Each structure stands twice: as structure tokens, then as C-alpha cells.
Amino acid sequence: MHHVSRVAPRVLLVTGTIGAGKTVVVAEIGEVLAERGITAALVDLDWLGWICRPATRARDAGGVHSLIVRNLAATWPNLRDAGAERLVLARAVTTWREVEELRAAVGSADLVVVRLTATRATIRTRLEARDSGHVLEEHLAQSAEFDRLLDGAGIADASVPTDGRTVRDVARDVLAAVRWSAGVGSP
């Protein structure tokens, strides 16, 4: 694990495996920050690269991650211009290269990564509540693989467990881990 610097970062990437709770926690982080008087832009990065194509059509040569990075680089200036003081991102990233490309896209040397964790049983329960059939089986397999990759990559500055906890408590712990716990005027 890396240590979060003493100065609060402006960009937070919430990562974790499929079913760890990234999207719901990022949404809750936005609510908590708004209550504290901090304007934040929230972006589930998967949506910046989601293109539905016929099976016979070739994929983007640069890959989905490359498309996400390009779209984030184009979007972040607009979000800042709209008043966002902070940027909170959600995406399962598994390599330092992916983190560095996201960091470059937002021009932020102070991007910090927090990994959400959950047991396999919790992941299964969450995925069964939202997925079914082939998609469920695919997500269960991918979730296990992403966890393995994240364990080996060491890209997170901090980790926050999500098992048996409220989304609000997890969001508060993520904010505390990155020192975004103060209100207006805080770094």
C-alpha cells in the first residue's frame, strides 16, 4: 500500500472488483461531499467507454480503456468549468499503467486510489441481485480474476472493506482515507 499524502488530493479513483460497490459508494460520496459544502463531479468510467456493437463489427483498435481515457480528458475540463472542486471516479483498474493514463487524462499528480473490498460471498450476493444467467456467471468469473489482479498490482493507496456495512459508512471511510473529511475550505 502507498500512503496518502498530507495534502488532500483533488481526484479520487474508487476501484475494486465487480460487485465491490464502486458505483453505489461513489454516488454516496457525492451526497456526503455536497452535505459538507464541497462540489464534486462523479463519473462511472465504464459509461465513458460503453459502446454496443454488432458482434461482427471490429472493436476499437485502442481498446475500451483508451476510449475511456480520451473521453475523461475531454470531460474533466467541462466539469471543472461547471464548478466541480473534486473529481470522484469509479472503475475496476488492475494495472499501474491504467492508473497513470487516468492521472494524465485529468492532469492530476494528486490522483489517489482507494480499493473497495468484499468477500466472495458478499460479491456473489450482490451480483445475484443484479445479474442473471450468462451475465451472472461471466461477472462472477471476472470478479474473481479482478480481485487476483488487484491483489498483485498494489495500486491502491488505501483499502476500505464493504462487507456488512452501510454505503454511508463505507463512503465516510473512503473520504477519511483520502483526507476529504473536512468541510468548505478544506484542502
Strand and helix map with partners:
Elements: E1 11-16, H1 22-35, E2 40-44, H2 63-81, E3 86-90, H3 96-106, E4 112-117, H4 120-130, H5 133-153, E5 158-161, H6 167-177
Parallel strand pairs: 1-3, 1-4, 2-3, 4-5
Helix pairs in contact: 1-6, 2-3, 4-5
C-alpha geometry = globular
Number of strands: 5
CA-atom Rg in angstroms? 16 Å
Strand proportion, as a percent range, falls in 5-15%
Note the run of SSEs as H and E: EHEHEHEHHEH
> Please, what is the oligomeric state?
single chain
Q: Determine the fraction of residues in helical runs and give it as a percent range.
A: 40-55%
Task: Give the helix tally.
Answer: 6
Could you describe the largest sheet, including whether it forms a barrel?
5 strands, parallel
Helix/strand class: alpha/beta
* Terminal-residue CA separation: 23 Å
Architecture overview:
This protein is an alpha/beta fold and 187 residues long. Helix content is 47%, strand content 14%. It has helices spanning 22-35, 63-81, 96-106, 120-130, 133-153, 167-177; strands at residues 11-16, 40-44, 86-90, 112-117, 158-161. Helix 1 (22-35) crosses helix 6. The longest helix has 21 residues, at 133-153. The two termini are 23 Å apart.
How is this structure best summarized?
The chain has six helices and five strands, in the order E-H-E-H-E-H-E-H-H-E-H. It is of the alpha/beta class and 187 residues long.
Descriptive key words:
187 residues; alpha/beta; 5-stranded parallel sheet; 5 strands; 47% helix; 14% strand; disordered C terminus
